[in-house]
Fold Glycerol dehydrogenase.
Amino acid sequence: MRKAFISPSKYVQGEDELFNLGYFIKTFGESALLIAHPDDVQRVKQKLEYTMEKYGVALIESGFNGECSRQEVKRLQQLAIEHNCSCTIGLGGGKAIDTAKCVAEGDALIIVPTIAATDAPTSHSAVLYSPEGEFDDYAYFKQSPSVVMIDTTVIANAPTRFLVAGMGDALSTYFEARATANSYSNVNAGLPCGANGGVGKPAKGTKAALALAKLCYETLLEDGAKAKISCDANLVTPALENIIETNILLSGLGFESGGLAAAHAIHNGLTSLEGTHSYYHGEKVAFTTLVQLVLENASTAEINEVLQFCVSVGLPVCLADIGVTSVTNDELRNVAQKACIPEESIHSMPFPVNEEMVVAAIRVADHIGQQYKQKGE
Ligand SMILES: [Zn+2]
């Protein structure tokens, strides 16, 4: 059986870690193209100036336009050539990080997340959009980022809602990896550089990835609520450090090498409901994790454990919590249709899934979540 595992070459996190950015730039050369939103640059400006001075490196600011589109990637690649940049830095949230991955094409890339809202920073894939912000395509690169660097002080000072959303994204990791393993489905780690039309060779997940996914879930249960309180107080504690590692490293390796299943596919379907648009990816994934558990008839004890965790950190457990106060059967059917298209990860569940099953699981998960909340009040 062919198996694959992929990860960044280096992962480093610590208080004021940004002071060391110049050291990592220096391992590639003298200058780096900086892809970041101006607000994010502003937040860490002093640290950037310090590290450039200390290590004698230059950061070329790129005037990133905020959208990860083919046009913007091309412009930035041109800029990197003009300035003779020896590496690319993606600093900030999802769009800056994805754009940096596309610009670097798997070479000499430093990723610096300033929020811990998703598990995307460690992966070797990115999502391309049109300049107008519509989905274009997925891109896979030959390598994961060279360095993923996290300044925990910066994360502690970002709004707590991002950290909690990251916990929602991390919550699905174990259950999706478990389903993928049980069905012997393929994982993304097996995909080579599809951006250049590379042919994907299927590969299954490793025991290592499943173990990381399990640790991801266990750490959420142990440290999630404590980390939320730390972030509310803008303070770095061991619990917050553990959750940053969980949201970014454990969840990132767990999803990419362990596999996605129903939770992310149903999340993708749910984005067709207008009400969900003001909610973050991870917030929706928390609810769709519950939907997956209903779909696979997980034990009552496991469902209750997940519900208890979500409520303890303020993650959504019902449709109203993600902005959907009423929904027709036709609308839910549309959600299920999107979740069940042939390319979707829902087919990594260990049994055949159809649209009726998805509609039923969403409705029942919604009821279970509502009831759980009422009991607690
Ligand atoms: Zn996700």
Summary: Residues 118-119, 169, 264, 281, 285 surround zinc ion (CB under 6 Å). Strands lie at 10-14, 31-36, 58-61, 87-92, 109-113, 125-129, 135-140, 147-151. The CA atoms of residues 23 and 284 lie 38 Å apart. The chain has a mean pLDDT of 95.
